[in-house]
Design a protein that fits this description.
mainly alpha; 2 domains; two-stranded antiparallel sheet; 9 helices; 2 strands; about 55% helix
Protein backbone atom coordinates (compact mmCIF):
# COMPACT_ATOMS: atom_id res chain seq x y z
CA UNK A 1 0.00 0.00 0.00
CA UNK A 2 1.40 3.35 -1.01
CA UNK A 3 2.08 5.75 1.87
CA UNK A 4 0.21 9.07 1.61
CA UNK A 5 2.30 11.96 0.40
CA UNK A 6 3.03 14.67 2.96
CA UNK A 7 2.65 18.37 2.28
CA UNK A 8 3.06 21.49 4.44
CA UNK A 9 0.16 22.34 6.70
CA UNK A 10 -2.18 24.76 5.03
CA UNK A 11 -3.36 26.83 7.96
CA UNK A 12 -0.92 28.40 10.41
CA UNK A 13 -1.47 27.74 14.08
CA UNK A 14 -2.77 30.51 16.27
CA UNK A 15 -2.43 30.99 20.00
CA UNK A 16 -3.38 27.73 21.71
CA UNK A 17 -6.87 28.01 23.21
CA UNK A 18 -5.59 26.23 26.31
CA UNK A 19 -3.41 29.12 27.49
CA UNK A 20 -6.00 30.92 29.62
CA UNK A 21 -7.43 27.68 30.99
CA UNK A 22 -4.09 26.23 31.99
CA UNK A 23 -3.50 29.00 34.50
CA UNK A 24 -6.60 27.90 36.42
CA UNK A 25 -5.56 24.24 36.67
CA UNK A 26 -2.02 23.78 37.93
CA UNK A 27 -1.49 20.07 37.05
CA UNK A 28 -3.03 20.48 33.60
CA UNK A 29 -1.07 23.68 33.14
CA UNK A 30 2.18 21.87 33.86
CA UNK A 31 1.32 19.20 31.31
CA UNK A 32 0.37 21.88 28.82
CA UNK A 33 3.64 23.73 29.26
CA UNK A 34 5.50 20.52 28.47
CA UNK A 35 3.38 19.81 25.42
CA UNK A 36 3.67 23.32 24.05
CA UNK A 37 7.40 23.36 24.67
CA UNK A 38 7.98 20.10 22.85
CA UNK A 39 5.27 20.51 20.25
CA UNK A 40 6.59 23.59 18.51
CA UNK A 41 6.94 21.36 15.50
CA UNK A 42 5.09 21.29 12.26
CA UNK A 43 2.53 18.70 11.35
CA UNK A 44 2.35 17.63 7.73
CA UNK A 45 -1.17 17.29 6.44
CA UNK A 46 -1.85 14.26 4.36
CA UNK A 47 -2.45 14.95 0.68
CA UNK A 48 -3.53 11.73 -0.98
CA UNK A 49 -5.54 8.63 -0.33
CA UNK A 50 -3.42 5.77 0.94
CA UNK A 51 -3.97 3.67 -2.16
CA UNK A 52 -5.84 5.53 -4.92
CA UNK A 53 -7.78 3.13 -7.10
CA UNK A 54 -7.15 5.37 -10.07
CA UNK A 55 -4.04 6.76 -11.73
CA UNK A 56 -6.04 9.78 -12.86
CA UNK A 57 -4.12 13.09 -12.77
CA UNK A 58 -6.58 14.37 -10.16
CA UNK A 59 -4.78 12.29 -7.55
CA UNK A 60 -1.51 14.03 -8.38
CA UNK A 61 -2.86 17.56 -7.86
CA UNK A 62 -1.91 19.61 -4.84
CA UNK A 63 -5.45 20.35 -3.69
CA UNK A 64 -4.74 22.03 -0.38
CA UNK A 65 -6.69 25.19 0.34
CA UNK A 66 -3.91 27.74 0.36
CA UNK A 67 -1.77 25.59 -1.91
CA UNK A 68 0.61 27.00 -4.53
CA UNK A 69 -1.90 27.40 -7.34
CA UNK A 70 -4.27 30.01 -8.74
CA UNK A 71 -7.82 29.24 -7.62
CA UNK A 72 -9.54 30.53 -10.76
CA UNK A 73 -7.16 28.61 -13.01
CA UNK A 74 -7.63 25.47 -10.91
CA UNK A 75 -11.40 25.69 -11.28
CA UNK A 76 -11.01 25.93 -15.06
CA UNK A 77 -8.62 22.98 -15.01
CA UNK A 78 -11.09 20.88 -13.04
CA UNK A 79 -13.85 21.54 -15.56
CA UNK A 80 -11.85 19.51 -18.10
CA UNK A 81 -12.31 16.46 -15.88
CA UNK A 82 -15.94 16.97 -14.87
CA UNK A 83 -17.19 14.15 -17.12
CA UNK A 84 -14.29 11.80 -16.33
CA UNK A 85 -14.87 12.28 -12.61
CA UNK A 86 -18.54 11.41 -12.67
CA UNK A 87 -20.41 9.78 -9.78
CA UNK A 88 -19.94 6.26 -11.18
CA UNK A 89 -16.47 6.25 -9.60
CA UNK A 90 -17.04 7.48 -6.01
CA UNK A 91 -13.33 7.80 -5.23
CA UNK A 92 -12.49 9.86 -8.31
CA UNK A 93 -15.70 11.85 -7.95
CA UNK A 94 -14.95 12.54 -4.30
CA UNK A 95 -11.44 13.72 -5.16
CA UNK A 96 -12.74 16.01 -7.91
CA UNK A 97 -15.30 17.52 -5.54
CA UNK A 98 -12.66 17.98 -2.85
CA UNK A 99 -10.23 19.73 -5.21
CA UNK A 100 -13.07 21.92 -6.42
CA UNK A 101 -14.05 22.76 -2.83
CA UNK A 102 -10.56 23.89 -1.85
CA UNK A 103 -10.27 26.05 -4.98
CA UNK A 104 -13.66 27.60 -4.28
CA UNK A 105 -12.62 28.27 -0.69
CA UNK A 106 -9.44 29.98 -1.89
CA UNK A 107 -11.58 32.01 -4.29
CA UNK A 108 -13.71 33.27 -1.39
CA UNK A 109 -16.82 31.31 -2.42
CA UNK A 110 -17.47 29.72 0.95
CA UNK A 111 -21.07 28.63 0.33
CA UNK A 112 -20.12 26.80 -2.85
CA UNK A 113 -17.00 25.37 -1.18
CA UNK A 114 -19.06 24.06 1.74
CA UNK A 115 -21.50 22.37 -0.63
CA UNK A 116 -18.63 20.78 -2.57
CA UNK A 117 -16.98 19.51 0.63
CA UNK A 118 -20.31 17.98 1.62
CA UNK A 119 -20.74 16.30 -1.76
CA UNK A 120 -17.16 15.01 -1.55
CA UNK A 121 -17.81 13.47 1.88
CA UNK A 122 -20.97 11.82 0.58
CA UNK A 123 -19.13 10.42 -2.44
CA UNK A 124 -16.30 8.95 -0.35
CA UNK A 125 -18.92 7.43 1.95
CA UNK A 126 -20.04 5.22 -0.95
CA UNK A 127 -16.69 3.40 -0.92
CA UNK A 128 -16.58 0.01 0.84
CA UNK A 129 -13.77 1.19 3.14
CA UNK A 130 -13.06 4.57 4.79
CA UNK A 131 -11.01 6.99 2.69
CA UNK A 132 -8.44 9.54 3.78
CA UNK A 133 -10.09 11.91 1.30
CA UNK A 134 -13.17 11.92 3.51
CA UNK A 135 -11.06 12.92 6.52
CA UNK A 136 -9.56 15.84 4.63
CA UNK A 137 -12.99 17.00 3.47
CA UNK A 138 -14.47 16.72 6.97
CA UNK A 139 -11.67 18.74 8.55
CA UNK A 140 -11.81 21.41 5.86
CA UNK A 141 -15.59 21.67 6.04
CA UNK A 142 -15.33 22.04 9.81
CA UNK A 143 -12.94 24.95 9.30
CA UNK A 144 -15.60 26.84 7.33
CA UNK A 145 -18.08 26.23 10.16
CA UNK A 146 -15.44 27.45 12.60
CA UNK A 147 -14.93 30.66 10.61
CA UNK A 148 -18.65 31.27 10.34
CA UNK A 149 -19.80 30.42 13.84
CA UNK A 150 -16.90 29.80 16.24
CA UNK A 151 -19.38 27.36 17.78
CA UNK A 152 -18.04 23.94 18.79
CA UNK A 153 -21.53 22.47 18.41
CA UNK A 154 -21.31 23.35 14.72
CA UNK A 155 -17.72 22.59 13.75
CA UNK A 156 -16.75 19.77 16.10
CA UNK A 157 -19.04 16.96 14.84
CA UNK A 158 -17.06 16.88 11.57
CA UNK A 159 -13.79 16.75 13.51
CA UNK A 160 -15.08 13.92 15.68
CA UNK A 161 -16.11 11.92 12.61
CA UNK A 162 -12.74 12.62 10.99
CA UNK A 163 -10.97 11.24 14.05
CA UNK A 164 -13.20 8.15 14.06
CA UNK A 165 -12.32 7.46 10.42
CA UNK A 166 -8.64 8.17 11.02
CA UNK A 167 -8.55 5.63 13.87
CA UNK A 168 -10.30 3.08 11.66
CA UNK A 169 -7.84 3.61 8.81
CA UNK A 170 -4.84 3.78 11.13
CA UNK A 171 -2.89 6.29 9.03
CA UNK A 172 -0.54 8.20 11.39
CA UNK A 173 -0.61 11.56 9.60
CA UNK A 174 -4.40 11.49 9.30
CA UNK A 175 -4.68 10.62 12.99
CA UNK A 176 -2.33 13.41 14.08
CA UNK A 177 -4.22 16.00 12.03
CA UNK A 178 -7.58 14.82 13.38
CA UNK A 179 -6.35 14.63 16.98
CA UNK A 180 -4.90 18.12 16.73
CA UNK A 181 -8.12 19.61 15.36
CA UNK A 182 -10.32 17.77 17.85
CA UNK A 183 -8.32 19.18 20.76
CA UNK A 184 -9.82 22.61 20.03
CA UNK A 185 -13.28 21.20 20.71
CA UNK A 186 -12.49 21.01 24.43
CA UNK A 187 -11.24 24.56 24.95
CA UNK A 188 -14.52 26.11 26.06
CA UNK A 189 -14.75 24.84 29.63
CA UNK A 190 -12.07 24.29 32.28
CA UNK A 191 -13.51 20.87 33.13
CA UNK A 192 -12.84 19.74 29.55
CA UNK A 193 -9.19 20.76 29.57
CA UNK A 194 -7.88 17.31 30.49
CA UNK A 195 -9.69 15.68 27.57
CA UNK A 196 -8.25 18.17 25.11
CA UNK A 197 -4.77 17.80 26.55
CA UNK A 198 -5.05 14.02 26.25
CA UNK A 199 -5.68 14.37 22.51
CA UNK A 200 -2.65 16.63 22.13
CA UNK A 201 -0.50 14.21 24.10
CA UNK A 202 -1.69 11.34 21.92
CA UNK A 203 -0.81 13.33 18.79
CA UNK A 204 2.62 14.13 20.19
CA UNK A 205 3.34 10.52 21.14
CA UNK A 206 2.25 9.33 17.71
CA UNK A 207 4.47 11.93 16.02
CA UNK A 208 7.41 10.75 18.13
CA UNK A 209 6.68 7.10 17.35
CA UNK A 210 6.61 7.89 13.63
CA UNK A 211 9.89 9.83 13.97
CA UNK A 212 8.42 12.81 12.15
CA UNK A 213 11.09 15.43 11.49
CA UNK A 214 10.38 18.92 12.89
CA UNK A 215 11.12 20.54 9.55
CA UNK A 216 8.48 18.44 7.80
CA UNK A 217 5.68 18.83 10.34
CA UNK A 218 2.98 21.54 11.03
CA UNK A 219 2.20 22.53 14.57
CA UNK A 220 0.71 20.25 17.15
CA UNK A 221 -0.82 22.90 19.33
Amino acid sequence: MKKPRSTPARRPAGTPPWASLAARTRPAGAILATILGVCSITLATFDADADPASSHPLFELDCRAGGPYNAAERLQELERWRIDAGPDDPELHGQWLYCRATALEMNGELDAAYASYTASIESFARLPLPAIGAIKALLDRSYIDYLRTNDTARYCPDRSEALRLAREIGDPEAMIAALNQNAFCFAGRPEQLAEGLALLEEALELAKAEDMAPGALGMIY
